[in-house]
Write a structure and sequence with these properties.
This protein is α+β, with helices and mostly antiparallel strands and 119 residues long. The protein has a single domain, classed as YlxR-like (Hypothetical Cytosolic Protein, Chain: A, 2-Layer Sandwich). The chain is 26% helix and 18% strand. It is elongated. It starts with 26 loop residues before the first strand and ends in a 7-residue tail after the last helix.
Length: 119
């Protein structure tokens, strides 16, 4: 075929290694402030089997998830509710999001986490 550039085929040995030593850090976007951050700096929200939005701290709940900043999650939750980005990301109605419960859980999560790791 004329005009098509040839592509080199990569074998598994040619690809960079994946895993802990690869230096790859997964990034996610906060639905409130829309900043991209490493996944460890965000907290995941998901829809439970009953249809309500819950805080998914271990990030293991099945289905669609949305992320908020861990350090200022209450403010990001307010911004996400104002823009309706949380309900849009999770593809649910506004009536299944309980902002008071989520705000309390986010505030409690910030209090539980130490600000700096022990020496």
């Amino acid at each position: 075929m004329a005009g098509m550039a040839s592509r080199e085929i990569q074998t598994p040995a040619d690809r960079p290694p994946r895993g802990e030593g690869s230096g790859h850090v997964p990034l996610r976007s906060c639905v409130g402030c829309r900043r991209k951050r490493p996944k460890q700096e965000l907290i995941r929200l998901a829809v439970d089997p009953l249809g309500t939005v819950i805080l998914d701290a271990p990030a293991r709940a099945p289905g669609r998830g949305a992320y908020l900043c861990r350090d200022n999650g209450v403010e990001c939750l307010k911004a996400a509710r104002r823009r309706r980005s949380l309900s849009r990301s999770l593809r649910v109605g506004e009536n299944v999001i309980d902002p008071e419960v989520l705000s309390d859980q986010l505030a409690g999560l910030v209090k539980e986490e130490p600000s700096s790791p022990p020496p």
